[in-house]
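Subject: design request, 353 residues
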């Protein structure tokens, strides 16, 4: 087991590239004291508004908050929301390579919250395929940076950035030592077929279940679902996040462990998945073994679910978290022995026939 404090030191200044769907999260807070005379709906009197980075931008924020250096590639529209997004990224000192797409709105999700309750969400987005020239610019950015980046996160929110040409380009990148950068994917179920052969996939239980076309319910679901995802995608590793159950880490098809959640208090689980993939990537960029990277990611997720909004973990917060919880042996994922045995038995029977 790596010394987690040493790992946190190692993570400082390490670069991680993120490519994916950028979003502007817009919150409108207000109060309701009457029903509209125009229609049977509440009238919200706005008190405060807030804009924050969502999607791939939030992953980049997480990387920087932990002392890493995010390089964010994505697409924005030539509109005011695009400018706001860009300004937020500059404020957070995220290095960006953004492609501007004409006639495409920057994705914005507005939540109207009154008396502490979300009343409605209003989405503005164009999620149809990008034009050839925009895709071409994205591929050019990837090639430009393949020499100085070892880890690439694909943050797929299904808004159009992640396409077959993009994934093909990622898989065929030649890195600094002739080794292609490792590809980590936070998947969107509709795009599963694009993720063939990637290094690590980090679905939540629902997304994993959808990819495997079977329920991923605790305790026996994740083992079976994991096997099915390996069959479908032929990925190297798999990390299924299980919300209150923590995570299932498949180091390989036939070997998986259960890492229970480290969360003490749970306020708001928004963005926990972004924190998981960001921490995992940064720890791997620092040279950590996969198990240690996953344990640290679980610590980071445990911190952010205890905070309000899509929060980010800090290095100090992580140091405290790892200190207050000494390493403990990790259990095999429930159902794993049986399913791995069954998989071997099926394989054995086939190879006999
Ligand atoms: N209710 C919870 N209790 C304890 N830990 C939690 C809870 N929800 C999430 N976590 C922690 O956060 C990690 C990721 O959460 P989850 O599986 O919900 O991802 P997600 O659905 O992708 O999140 P999101 O889409 O909101 O960013 C889990 O592996 C766990 O460590
Ligand atoms: Mg998620």
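Subject: RE: design request

Done. Sequence follows.
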């Amino acid at each position: 087991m790596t010394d987690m404090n040493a790992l946190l030191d190692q993570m400082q200044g390490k670069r991680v590239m993120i490519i994916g769907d950028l979003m502007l999260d817009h919150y409108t807070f207000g109060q309701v004291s009457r029903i509209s005379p125009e229609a049977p709906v509440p009238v919200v009197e706005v008190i405060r508004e807030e804009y924050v980075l969502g999607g791939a931008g939030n992953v980049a924020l997480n990387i920087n908050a932990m002392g890493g250096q995010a390089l964010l590639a994505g697409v924005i529209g030539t509109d005011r929301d695009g400018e706001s997004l860009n300004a937020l990224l500059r404020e957070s000192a995220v290095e960006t390579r953004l492609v501007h797409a004409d006639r495409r709105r920057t994705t914005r999700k507005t939540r109207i919250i009154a008396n502490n309750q979300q009343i409605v969400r209003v989405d503005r987005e164009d999620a149809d395929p990008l034009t050839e020239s925009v895709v071409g610019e994205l591929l050019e950015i990837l090639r430009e940076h393949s020499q100085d980046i070892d880890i690439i996160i694909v943050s797929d929110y299904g808004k159009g950035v992640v396409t077959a040409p993009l994934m093909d380009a990622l898989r065929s990148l030649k890195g600094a030592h002739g080794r292609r950068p490792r590809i980590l994917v936070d998947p969107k179920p509709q795009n599963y077929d694009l993720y063939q052969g990637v290094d690590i996939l980090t679905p939540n239980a629902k997304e994993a279940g959808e990819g495997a076309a079977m329920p991923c319910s605790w305790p026996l679901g994740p083992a079976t679902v994991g096997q099915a995802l390996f069959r479908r995608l032929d990925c190297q590793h798999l990390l299924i996040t299980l919300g209150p159950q923590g995570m299932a880490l498949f180091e390989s098809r036939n070997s998986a462990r259960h890492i229970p959640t480290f969360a003490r208090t749970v306020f708001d689980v928004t963005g926990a998945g972004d924190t998981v993939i960001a921490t995992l990537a940064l720890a791997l960029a620092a040279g950590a073994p996969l198990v240690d990277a996953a344990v640290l990611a679980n610590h980071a997720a445990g911190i952010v679910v205890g905070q309000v909004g899509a929060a980010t973990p800090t290095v100090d917060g992580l140091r405290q978290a790892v200190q207050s919880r000494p390493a403990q042996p990790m259990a095999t994922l429930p159902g794993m022995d049986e399913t791995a045995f069954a998989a071997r038995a099926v394989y054995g029977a086939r190879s006999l026939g």
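Confidence is low (pLDDT under 50) at residues 347-353.
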